[in-house]
Amino acid sequence: MSDELKPIIEALIFASPDPLTLKTLFRLLDEEPPEDVERALEALQADYDARGGLQMVQVAGGYQICTRPEFHEWVRRLFHEHSKQRLSVQALETLAVIAYKQPITGPEISEIRGVNTSAVVGTLLERQLVKVVGRRPVVGRPFLYATTREFLNRFGLSDLGDLPKVEEMAEALGMEVPLGLATPGPATESLPFEDASEVPEDPETTPPEQVH
Question: What is the pLDDT of residues 130-140, one digit of tens each?
Answer without folding.
Answer: 999 999 998 88
